[in-house]
TrEMBL record:
It is a multi-pass membrane protein. Its main location: membrane. Keywords: Cell membrane, Membrane, Transmembrane, Transmembrane helix. Pfam families: Polysacc_synt (PF01943). It is found in: Cell membrane. The keyword Transmembrane applies. This is Lipopolysaccharide biosynthesis protein. It comes from Phocaeicola acetigenes.
Length: 497
């Protein structure tokens, strides 16, 4: 239980940067949807460009985050040497990437169909190179169990980015109208989408200064033997990382190309991307859990009771994922105001997107078996299968059914690879997961979801009250079955008083 308490504590701290940070960041969605009307396709441009940068980020990090954790925890390796090799490899790769892309900036911009805005592409090239390099110091902070600094840097970046967006998208337009001389020397009212990328570039550059302590105090010497072993281990992780991020972004990358009218594709992509943000709770919880779980798994592998802990971690992840799903769906009448009204037509995808996130989280929990057994090639196989399903379904169904097909394609892709990982994992590294208990939670959540959506109550106040009661039913069941009040220290003390 001590291991689970440590995992819960780290998840909570990482969750501060992930959940609070993403919540603050997602406050930009109402801003973007307000200043970039759905019909303009501007938010579609933002989603499209960021989809490419997400893919490139995975390519440049090369799976070295997981590789670093694996080799830094080996008893026969020096963690500082592993860290130095990771920095040199990712830093060198990022530098080469920036140099080549800047040399061929205009052809790349034309290929991506942004010939009039190579500046968009150029800025994001630099951003993704900086972010990929910074992934290694972030991993080092996690290895050193310094979640507070990790969270502080993440939050500073997000808050700074929000501030710059508010400055460029709200304050500058106001000053341009009422005091034009104050901003006319640098501000262009027609460059709204571009200022989103400018804000990101500024904060990625500033963030580098916080890692100065983590970039000093050791020798930058590449150990070729160690580097070869790390690349061999990390390359399959790179493959399934690439395919994994394609599972999340390929629909946004190819979406404009699936329509005869590219502008219509960007409009639909903007609606789909904006309304998918309402499902942020699930993505934030999954990310926070991942930050704490990866170093926890590799460290816990040395203990005798590790498999029981992994099974318990899966159950609690599943329980709280279902709770997050129910919370979002029960309060959709409030959360929909995160986006402007002209985007509301896409709210039907929120439940589907959250289902895909749950499956992605389960798959991540299952994936540790091939990392611990050093059979990472299985991750590549699973990711390729999932990506193929996602790609084919998008190409086939999106022209017919629009963005709803993209959402269901994600569910299908993650569903298949989750099942495959479980079946094969039970043969390679068997773990006795509490499937019966998890099924009962799923059944209860399904019934409560059905009631919340299909019991018609016209009055908003009474509808929210009814749905809150349904949530309480789920929470009470959790407290009774798997999280008794007496096991929660704070509540236990209050009850005794």
């Amino acid at each position: 239980m001590a291991g689970l308490k440590s995992l819960a504590k780290d998840t909570a701290i990482y969750g501060l940067s992930s959940i609070v940070g993403r919540f603050l960041n997602y406050l930009l969605v109402p801003l973007y949807t307000a200043v970039l009307p759905a019909a303009s396709g501007g938010y579609g441009v933002v989603s499209n460009v960021y989809a490419y940068t997400a893919l490139i980020l995975v390519l440049l990090t090369f799976g070295m985050e997981t590789g670093f954790f694996r080799f830094a925890n080996k008893q026969d390796e020096q963690p500082e040497k592993v860290y130095a090799n990771s920095l040199l490899f990712v830093g060198g790769l990022s530098l080469c990437f920036v140099s080549l892309c800047m040399l061929f900036l205009h052809p790349i911009s034309s290929f991506l169909e942004y010939p009039d805005h190579p500046d968009y592409v150029g800025m994001m090239i630099v951003v993704v190179a900086l972010d990929s390099f910074q992934c290694i110091p972030f991993a080092y902070l996690r290895y050193k169990k310094r979640p507070i600094k990790f969270a502080a840097i993440k939050l500073f970046n997000i808050i700074g980015n929000i501030g710059l967006n508010l400055f460029f998208l709200l304050l500058c337009p106001y000053l341009a109208q009422h005091a034009p001389s104050t901003v006319s020397w640098f501000y262009n009212p027609d460059y709204l989408v571009g200022y989103i990328f400018v804000s990101n570039l500024i904060m990625s550059a500033v963030q580098m200064f916080f890692f100065i302590p983590e970039l000093r105090g050791f020798s930058y010497r590449m150990d070729r033997v160690l580097m070869k072993r790390m690349i061999s281990y990390s390359f399959p992780i790179l493959i399934f990382g690439v395919v994994g991020i394609l599972n999340q972004t390929i629909d946004k990358m190819i979406y404009p190309f699936l329509f005869d009218d590219r502008q219509e594709g960007l409009v639909q992509l903007g609606i789909y991307s904006a309304t998918s943000k309402v499902a942020m709770v699930m993505a934030m919880f999954t990310q926070a859990f991942r930050y704490a779980y990866e170093p926890f798994v590799f460290g816990k592998n040395k203990d005798a009771d590790n498999r029981k802990v992994y099974a318990s971690a899966m159950k609690y992840f599943f329980i709280f994922s279902l709770l997050a799903f129910l919370a979002v769906m029960c309060y959709m009448d409030v959360l929909k105001y995160m986006v402007a009204r002209d985007y509301w037509e896409g709210l039907s995808v929120v439940a589907i997107v959250m289902l895909a996130e749950i499956l992605k989280g389960i798959y991540f929990n299952l994936s540790f078996w091939y990392k611990l057994t050093d059979e990472t090639r299985w991750g590549a196989y699973f990711s390729l299968i999932g990506c193929a399903i996602l790609l084919l379904m998008n190409i086939w169904l999106v022209p017919l059914y629009g963005y709803v097909a993209s959402a269901w394609a994600s569910v299908a892709g993650y569903g298949v690879i989750t099942l495959l990982s479980y079946v094969i994992g039970q043969k390679k590294y068997p773990v006795h997961y509490p499937l019966h208990s998890m099924f009962l939670y799923l059944l209860l959540a399904g019934v409560l979801f059905f009631l919340s959506q299909y019991v018609i109550i016209e009055n908003l106040f009474f509808r929210l009250a009814f749905r809150t009661a349904l949530l309480i039913v789920f929470v009470v069941y959790v407290l009774k079955k798997d999280l008794p009040v007496r096991n929660i220290p704070v509540l236990n003390r209050l009850i005794k008083k």
